[in-house]
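We close this part of the discussion by returning to an individual protein. In the encoding step, the backbone of a single protein was reduced to a row of integers, each denoting a local shape. The sequence in question and its structure tokens are set out directly beneath this paragraph.
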Amino acid sequence: MKHWSFAYAFVKQIVRAAMWLVHKRISVIGETNIPPDTPVIFAPNHQNALMDPLAVLCTSRTQPVWLARADIFKLKAARPILRFLKIMPVYRFRDGKDNLGKNEEVFAQAIEVLENKRELALFPEAAHSGKRQMLAHKKAIPRIAFLAEEKNNFQLNLHIIPVGIYYSHYWHLNRELIVHYGEPILVKEYEAEFKRDSHKANMALRNEISKRVEALTINIKSKEYYDNYELMRELVGADYAHQSKADKNRLKNRFYSDQKLISLLEEKEASQPTVFGELHQQLTNYRETLHQLNIHNKQVSQTKLSAWYLVKKSFGALLLLPLFLLGFILHLIPFFIPRHFIQRKVKDQLFYGSVQFVVGLIIYSVIGLVLSIVFYRYTQDALLTLCLLLGFWLLGKLAYQAMQYLLDLINNVRFFLFARKDPNQSSRLLRQKAELRNQLFQLIND
């Protein structure tokens, strides 16, 4: 496997441009923690299928070799593509006991990558969760790290880089993304412990990686009340972030603030279980009521019951409607139709974002090539052709944002009409939300 590939670098730039198009904002923190000309193992959290490795790939200057579960190699036609993408299989017990021996060859290749001062990457959780909730770390990274250093008498200078990946949403387009590269862990620092007791050293390194990665993520520990914690973050997160102002960057500030908020609420729950028991019951009742009425929490607002508010929103919608219609017509086949079938055929929502991205990348690359040929044939102007092509892609993104605005308006109108039809229920919802917010702020500030 080539350690650096020009073809890979070319494809990477296309994928990178696509990543910036499908995200509203991407923030990269700590890229300077990746040392140059040094063997590195990236250890990111895993929550969003294929989008996680792309997040690392597109926000660093590297061409990492990835270790992935072996079942994705079952399709023979996919193997050359996976190899081009520098992905190697790791076999688990579920892949068959007889296949476990193949890991020795894979690990040997992984060590060779590190010996050539290149980058290796694998997910320490060995599975994705689809939640802001870190799974238990496995032993693959410590095992490979110590095999590599032991083979080289602990002179390899191997760095393990913990990586935190955060999405504002897991499959919606125009989401926000943070990729946070933490301070490296030097494997050589575990040399003495490894020589005394290799098992303890493996456990110690695994635990240190887990602790470092967790510090770069939002990790909601409660399994029973996970949805309630997400709702609490939604209810008071924005106001709490405005108070804290941990960072001037709005996206980073909200991330750091949410980290602090979740940690604080978990501490409060541990010290006040009775209070939180009652609070969780109220949160659950509120969530279930919203679900039954098919209303979003963000629509439950006194402001959004104002007719004047809806008039202003409707005026904005009229201005955006031509943009949406034009974008819808031009992107119906490459975007909306595939999106419709993907959401119908793909059973696991965790794969929505990944499948949409890959399918969209292929379709839009082909369309881009065809349009470039057609535009250039009629204009004979390379610069104008490039501008027309970029305009086509950007129009798609702007049209999607206009669609989100229109859908938000529709939800606001639905809540407005619901409140007129059932004023008692809408008043109860408003009171519930206000009481929950007051209780949460009282707990936070206590």
